[in-house]
Amino acid sequence: MTEEAKNTAVRRSYRHGDLRRALLDAGIALARSGGPDAVVLREATRQAGVVPNAAYRHFSSRDDLVRAVRAYALSQVAIAMETELARIPAELPPLAFAQASVRAVGTGYLHYAHAEPGLFKTAFFFHENVDADTDPAKAGRSGMNPFQLLSMALERLATAGGLPPERRLGAEYLAWSAVHGLALLVSEGPLHGMPEVQRQMLGQRLLDMVEKGL
Amino acid sequence: MTEEAKNTAVRRSYRHGDLRRALLDAGIALARSGGPDAVVLREATRQAGVVPNAAYRHFSSRDDLVRAVRAYALSQVAIAMETELARIPAELPPLAFAQASVRAVGTGYLHYAHAEPGLFKTAFFFHENVDADTDPAKAGRSGMNPFQLLSMALERLATAGGLPPERRLGAEYLAWSAVHGLALLVSEGPLHGMPEVQRQMLGQRLLDMVEKGL
DNA sequence: GCCAAATGTGTACGCCGTACACATAAAATA
DNA sequence: TATTTTATGTGTACGGCGTACACATTTGGC
Asked: Which of A47, A122, B86, B114 is the Cys-Cys partner for A31 at CB 3.0 to 4.6 Å?
């Protein structure tokens, strides 16, 4: 037992080893199964096998913990988008490549919202404590956040001639609106639990709509 | 003082008069300034000048009170939509009338989301306790809920030939997605506090997108 | 080896939702 | 009108939450 007292295990020594990590993991697990409201500080400390107040050595408040979980969730969303982007054949003609990029970021976004509703909701749970630098997103794997990835895709589209310059400004928000709305209906709204096939179908039609209507 | 001890007033007699109404009013006020999470039962009873447990004679739980507030908020959304629908000149040619209808319901929805972010969020706060008959909405003034009003507008569009039959199925959800997404970005998201003009502009462009892309 | 900094503990407070027994006013019945 | 039932508000209590403050223990630098 060279290394004991790890993240989820109930440690035996006074010191924990990496309590911050353990609390974050617990917070992520809680958010995964219930969204941001389910991230309760005392429960996280319980899972880490530590007294409630120990958390305050690593997070200044419950909200601070939620923020950390949100940063994680946002990076996961970014990764989901990047994964879809990576599937695009590089040899595609410019316009097709750009269109595929827009669809890819949308698909990744929708996919994550369906696969991890709780974390998705945590990632884009505005409402409270929105500080400018955190919003709309934190880091991704490529160093870009979800919003930046969307902007990039739309810029590709504009450059390739698929998006008239006069419609460029604010296009991120229009596309984001459409995709975000469907993501919510699917992840926690009336479309929750919809069969996979129908969900993908609806996602594709929504992206058609965005592409045609932008 | 023929009638005293009304809604917000702190009554003097043992009986309140209409505690249920007073609690609902308080709940609405709380939701208005902070969304569903701000609806705290004890505060509502405080505002009604009554002991906490008195609430349980009228609402079986806090969630029950929130549900009542949500029903109110939904009816207000419906009314906002109906108000916009009423502005449409009846003598318009069928297709134009149908298109105007779709825009009207979208505009009403967006307008309410901007004017009453807290209540809007309460109205469409899925996530918890979604029971089939309550979802997606409760009653409006015309007896229709927001979702039904949207469906009606889209049906007009389909009938007028503005929406190909093969694209009719699920069109409500596509349109709803787009509008709902923007409503969220505006009411509690990164677009919160955006100047009125820009907001309306963005709303119109979004509805353009929906119209062209559906 | 000693001291200071970092990290976990103990105790306590005021919120919250809500269960249960009790008090009182209004309505129904006689 | 007198009495009983029912509706409605009160009192007390419990456990859970976030978190403030003082205290204990370990670790790391000198």
From this structure: A122
